Amino acid sequence: MSIGTSNPYYASPYGLRRLKRGPLARYLDGFAKRLWACGYSPGLAQNYLRCISFLSVWLEEHGFKVVHLDDRKVCDYVQYLKHHQGTLVSSAPYLLFVSYLRETGVISRPTPIAKSKIDSIINEYLEYLRRDRGLAESTIMHRRLFTRRFLQERFAKNAVRVDRLKDRDVIRYIQDHAHEYSAIYSTCIVVVLRDFYRFLRLKGYVDKDIASGIPRMPHWKPMRPPEYLEPSDVERLLRTCDRKIPQGMRDYAILLILARLGLRAGEVRNLTLDDIDWEGGEITVCGKGARRNRLPLPQDIGKALAQYLRHGRPPCSSRHVFIRLRAPHSQLQCSGPIYKIVSKALARAGLHPQHKGPHLLRHTFATHLIQRGASLSEIGRMLGHEDPNSTCRVDII
Asked: Are both 240 and 374 inside the same structural domain?
């Protein structure tokens, strides 16, 4: 933190004097400390503080106080800037500042919007999946998406009467959208909606077993072995990472874990510092259904993780192993960045397989184990499969 002020990005009070104007002036230093804690660089943070200073002047000119600041006021101000400057303006610094004021209790949180009948039913369904079925949050969010789209299209602007739902509603929905989805995606929708109908029957929303009237969608996968990389290609892939820079250290550790342990992208994303047993040489993986699987920690993975944690991982309060390199420094919010890490490394290595995601390295890991004489049960334990058939199934998603 800089010396001379309570603002970590300004060493001299003279640099702050011109920024502290209007009703937001007294909150600039606290906001700066928040940006500092989240790892924002001096250049970006100072730009954010200037943006808030200009917003403060605009509020003062229009007679507004800090309590009047909300998302709507931010929209009005951004539109004002676009009109006068004629350029694209990001609302990120303003919305981040509003969020900071809400967290510190300076302004009140927005009044919750009244839930619709669809929202109430879906929320009840999600809570049932979470509490009674113990499904993972990622699975629950997918089911939320499918059921919401179905109910919104089924009732549109009409009154929501779930007691009038029929099995033919699902059949018609799939027929109308079959051209938009792949066969696998359509199959998933049918599975989710059949389960949703069972929930409605269980909770008394419908009095008939309409789920049994929804036919399953057949889907035959091609009888071909899963795509995989040769050991030499895996080494080429790993060598594309520049391990002298933080991004290269992180990407190398992620690729190494995918290739040597065959983890799913979500399992890598959810790894925490507490999952690594350095003394015992083990790593605990939280897989599907919250199942925890203890795996040996190979020496090369341990060295890669140690280098990343010591020299590449940004300082932050998160316990997750892999962190965003750009502020705010927090865990990876989804598996998309891991997919990009793999696909970009493949491109750098000059490898062009049909499937370019993390599952390619999972298949590679399993295939190499088979070539070394490992049994399917041993491979299943390494991959975290509860059902032995999952190890035999060819999955190219």
From this structure: yes
